[in-house]
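Why does this matter for the project? Reviewers at the last site visit asked to see concrete outputs rather than summary tables. In response, this paragraph embeds two records directly. Each consists of the residue sequence and, immediately after it, the corresponding structure tokens. Nothing has been edited or filtered.
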Amino acid sequence: MTKPRFQFKSPTMLPVLAGLALASVWFGLFLAWLAPWTVLVPEEEDPANAKELKAGQLFIVGNTHTSDHLIRECLQVYPGSTFTKRELQEAEWKLCRLRLFKCDPQHGIGPTVKLIDGESDFRDIIVQVQELPGNELLCAALEWRLAVVLGDIDGLRQALERFRRGLEGKL
């Protein structure tokens, strides 16, 4: 009778398996971070989409756990900056790819980024989202990552506090 080539020995293999699980979680968070910024939007040759407009105020509606900062980072349009309608379409795709909001393009459900009609040179923008239930911890983790990248100590404290509150609700 031959011995099996691999035997699971819990005292020696458990830390290795735990390390692999932790590495896969970090890799998954990295992919979730990378996904919104790698977007392929179908090309449209509409001259109206190429016209540059100036941004006025930004209104974000429907977010309770996701910070405005994270949504604005996907939008990449700030008051006073110039943008095109195509950039607003790309922002909708990026918000969908965050996987924090309800998104079903076949039924017309998903984040919307629209211009508010007006006569001014500056155009106001409204962003409407519907958050998925139970994404408090993911939002806290994304904010923590952003605070680490930016070196924002106050942001780190706030993200860790939100993470702690989210864990209290789960335990």
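We now turn to the second protein, recorded in exactly the same manner.
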Amino acid sequence: MVLKHFSESEQLFLSAFTTGIEALNLAIYDLEFQPRGNSILRLYIINPETNTATIDECVKVDSIVTPIIDEMDWVKEGMTLEVSSPGIYRDLSQKDHFKMAEGKGISLLLMKKVEHEEAPKTLKNQKRFDAVLESCSADAIQVNHNDFVFEVKFTDIKKASLNPDFSA
């Protein structure tokens, strides 16, 4: 399933960082924590007005969260912090990511092949395809692939990402 569930550690980081990052008029888009080996914390941020993040914004966030991390006695010393924009081909792993991508091109990898009777030949029996994200509901997305509109449940999506090169 595409929807990401944050680990307990990731949730602790999110709650510790959110207020300071929001004070900069920025938002946390995603977060990845790899505690094994040389531990790495990747923090993806966006400016809600531009839907991306500049290098200056990343530097500001780094300067805010580094002291917070230093105060967390459960964090292994020497952890690497990476702060960046999620990129233009960003992963869609939360419902709000899909909401932000409504009306835009996306790339999908499904758990199983498309089996709709009415599906065009270019889509039938495919697991990987591009489409325009029409809408997002609580448990599914509505996509448009070459004027064929259909629903895909979140549980059927293996991977999804923004694809600005695709349009209907």
